[in-house]
Amino acid sequence: MLAGITYAQAKETANALGIHAEDTALWSDTEYVRQLLRAFDIKAGPTQTPFDTWESLPDKALLAIKWRMEQGRPFWHWVVFVRSEQEAVVLDSKKSLKTNTRRVFGRIKPKWFIRID
């Protein structure tokens, strides 16, 4: 959605950059996703901003959800938030979801976000 390509195409680019979904470092460091965004010439905010409300999010953001500490190290799952004139959605790559486009946010608990310009 952010780069205008499919998930498979984004994954192929990530893999070419040495970024692999099964690498647990990806789940606890923002630099990997920032590197991928730069590869697509997508501008991201320089810092992580604590989540407050869904209404206060920028129109495009990467959200850190399912945030937790494991052996003294933070881990999270990335999702994409996009607000258009018609609706706001969360794009989630989690395989067990019926659809990867989420429109009901009650069960999603973001810790912080990175603004996408």
From TrEMBL:
Top-rank taxon, per record: Bacteria
Q: What is this protein called?
A: Peptidase C39 domain-containing protein
Provide the species name.
Answer: Halovibrio variabilis
